[in-house]
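Try this one yourself first.
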């Protein structure tokens, strides 16, 4: 497995890292593979049980005003 051990109290950091990494690698013009990217990044961060949270954060970022200005 490519997952790393997670230290206690660092879940918020891992969720943020997975969210940021997903947004970095996602094709913003066609984010159709969003769930697969989220799943992979959560595995990398050793937080697969938080994939639903990361997905919601990524979807929120994609729908934000800042994202609308980028289009």
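Now uncover the answer:
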């Amino acid at each position: 497995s490519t997952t790393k051990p997670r230290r206690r109290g660092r879940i918020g950091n891992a969720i943020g890292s997975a969210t940021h990494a997903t947004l970095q690698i996602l094709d913003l013009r066609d984010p159709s593979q969003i769930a697969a990217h989220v799943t992979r990044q959560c595995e990398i961060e050793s937080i697969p049980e938080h994939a639903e949270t990361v997905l919601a954060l990524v979807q929120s970022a994609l729908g934000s005003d800042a994202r609308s200005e980028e289009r």
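Discussion: The mean pLDDT is 86. The helical segments are 11-25, 34-44, 51-62, 65-70.
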